[in-house]
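Annotated sample (chain length 147).
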Amino acid sequence: ARILSFIPPDGEFVLMNYRMTNEFRPPFRIYPFFELLSPYKVELIVKVRAEVPENNYGGNIVISIPMPKSTSSVVCELGIGVVGQTYEYDAKERKLLWKIKKFAGGAEQTIRCKITLAGAHSTSVRKEIGPISMQFEIPMYNPSGLQ
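Output written by the structure step:
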């Protein structure tokens, strides 16, 4: 075993960076489902699964979903009885932000979005959604096994 000793400086700092070369499971999996409802309406369902152990959780999660250029409005539904989740559509950036305060390990969360387009969509509208990105924190979780 190796021990690292240090005297911390004032303020926030990076203690160590490391890289893993072996297989590793991402802490979250994102499953998007897309359906063309009419020439002006598209439905997007995004399911996120926490692959971390049940005794861990993700916090301060922000999932960012870019929308098509021709989007005129986005209306979303969160799961029934969901607490600690919000969403907002930034029309200027054409981006949906889905925020989740706390996400238990092993759990799934879903958002269902009805996207209204200003003009009739073409087959390329599917390519204009995404890429979906995610920011998160997982306290006291280490996928590498480094202690």
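Annotation: The longest strand covers residues 28-38.
Annotation: The two ends are 10 Å apart (CA to CA).
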